[in-house]
Design goal:
78 residues, ATPase_put, mainly alpha, single chain
């Protein structure tokens, strides 16, 4: 997967996830008559959840790259 494909995929995932939580919140608000409480709360929840997920994915990739780099540098010293 190229970096452009990965970026487009992540952007679409963010937009779709936020839209789903927005619509669920809107549905709950309409049902309970509390517009826009759940809509706002669930939209923020979706955005924060996505960024937390991206944070852990980034840390995982960086740990993998650091491990590969340290193994390569140990191999060069031998």
């Amino acid at each position: 997967m190229t970096p452009v494909d990965k970026g487009i995929s992540q952007g679409a995932e963010l937009a779709a996830g936020v839209l789903v939580f927005f619509l669920i919140g809107l549905g709950i608000d309409t049902w309970l008559g509390t517009v826009p409480v759940f809509m706002i709360v669930l939209t923020v929840f979706g955005v924060v959840g996505y960024f937390v997920r991206m944070y852990y994915a980034y840390n995982s990739v960086m740990a993998k790259l650091e491990k590969e780099r340290s193994e390569k540098s140990r191999g060069d010293q031998a």
